[in-house]
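Lab notes, practical 5.
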Amino acid sequence: MIFPKKNYASWHSSAENLYELTEEDIRRMHEILLDMYKDLEAFCRKHSLHLIAGGGTALGAVRHKGFIPWDDDMDLDMTRSDYEKLKELFEQELGQKYEMLAPGYKKGASCFLMRIYKKNTTILNMIDEASPYPAGIYIDITPIDYAPDNKLLWFIKGMAADFLRAVSYSVYWKQYRSESLKQFMMESEGKNYYRLRMTTGVLFSFKTAEEWFALFDRFIQGRKSGFVTVAAGRKKYRGETYQKDVYFPAGKTVFEDTEIYIHHNIDEYLKRMYGDYMKIPEAENREKHLCLKLDFNRAER
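Output from the prediction step:
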């Protein structure tokens, strides 16, 4: 889980069972994520699919020519058609080395987007403590869907999508309730947020979290239009809706020792996401990364 450093002190007393990633841990994480990306990119290139940097990975590609130095994950986007094709082909070609979870996927889902996990690694976040799903180092992949041209329809659909997203994750919190997360949140400034999540989870537990994730994923799909959205992204449906030409055609840029696709008007995309995105945040405003367990290679043990 990720926490802004400026709020970290108020939570620290409840975090005795948590491990804070070190700079060396994050460096090793970057190495693994980059290897994973290269495997996925080779697979996608073979099948004429495209992975596009999103969120913090897009920011890192532009500002740092690679990972944000203190970031510990990788965010990628795909068009809906490519996203569904990846689900179809994944197991037969990548299943020995990686595991996939995604809404509506046969092996289940642990959130409202696709996650690809590296086998024989562990990063166990509090929210997943009681989950039956893999807890390996992972890459997030979010689908790019069409959004309505009509502003009223866009607003209504966006409100409904964000509601379904909140419900699905709240039910997951309730269904796989983590005692570590409960203790952490209830002993911190996050206790009201935790209560809201759990109450929502109770009210909507007539469906499983997996069913809600699949419902959200079906709902956000749209007919071809002049606008696209990444409803499972950082800023949700309405926060990540753009004119189509902001995203496409995608370009390429340097990322570490390889290349990565980025959105066509990357300046507009990053301004909407981060404001003055080239400004390096002060150390006290950078995100902190905490987990319950971390293991880079279980196979060697």
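Observations recorded by the TA: The radius of gyration is 19 Å. DSSP finds eleven helices and 14 strands in the chain.
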